[in-house]
Write a structure and sequence with these properties.
five-stranded antiparallel β-sheet, 12% strand, Uridine Diphospho-n-acetylenolpyruvylglucosamine Reductase, domain 3, 238 residues, alpha+beta, 3 domains
Length: 238
């Protein structure tokens, strides 16, 4: 009986020790950071869908406003202010760019949102000439920042044939650069495309992983936790 109690006690202690290890792993700062990032990403996606629904509803309203403008023009009635109509369209475009910024999470997409916001301020709002001049100057500064200060999405590796691309680069841009035909249904960005392809193949992305897709070999060049930062794409030598 004493032996049985001892065995039960050992099993309980082993179970408790395993649970404590699992708890420590769960509470590790890197795991917590990854889970927090995942929750934040999920909230961003939910907000993006909410914004898209709102933009869709307001877009429908624009067509009704356009119908009223046509009727007013035909019946020679007082037409609504075109500046209000233009301001609404600009607002919807800014909303769409903001959704793209939440999805891509790149500096370029953030700058595009600011550019559209400034353009709306200059064109739709009737400000003074000084306001317009300041807006144009701000746009010029943003273009300069985008051209000279933002890190390029791609760079050449040690060999000339190496094509190392930022994971946030659109797959369409890669197709244009390599004259390839990677299916955009897998993802809009290179990282998303590779992640979904590996998921279908039952593989987990990690640093140095190589996989052949079509006539090219994809190599994960840099990762940040579970996020694919840079990918090397090289042609397969036949």
């Amino acid at each position: 009986m004493f032996r049985n109690n001892r065995i039960k006690t050992d099993k309980f202690l082993n179970f408790k020790e395993k649970q404590m290890k699992k708890l420590k792993i769960f509470l590790h700062h890197q795991n917590l950071r990854r889970r927090a990032a995942g929750i934040a990403g999920g909230i961003e996606i939910a907000l993006s869908f909410a914004m898209l629904v709102g933009i869709l509803l307001l877009s429908i309203q624009i067509f009704f406003d356009l119908k009223d403008m046509v009727i007013a023009a035909v019946e020679k009635k007082t037409m609504p202010q075109f500046s209000d109509f233009l301001s609404m369209i600009f607002s919807l475009v800014i909303g769409l760019e903001f959704v793209k910024m939440l999805i891509k999470q790149t500096l370029s997409s953030a700058i595009e949102v600011v550019l559209f916001t400034l353009a709306r301020k200059i064109i739709a709002d009737h400000g003074s000439m000084i306001d317009a001049l300041l807006g144009v100057a701000a746009i010029a500064v943003l273009f300069a920042i985008k051209k000279f200060l933002i890190q390029n999405t791609e760079y050449t590796g040690e060999e000339e044939c190496d094509y190392i691309v930022n994971g946030g680069t659109s797959i369409r841009e890669v197709n244009h650069r390599l004259d390839s035909d990677f299916d955009e249904a897998y993802g809009n960005t290179v990282a998303g495309y590779l992640f979904n392809y590996l998921k279908r193949e039952g593989k987990t992305p990690h640093f140095g992983l190589e996989t052949e897709i079509g006539e090219y070999k994809f190599i994960i060049h840099e990762m940040d936790n579970d996020l694919i930062r840079y990918i090397k794409i090289v042609p397969i030598q036949h």
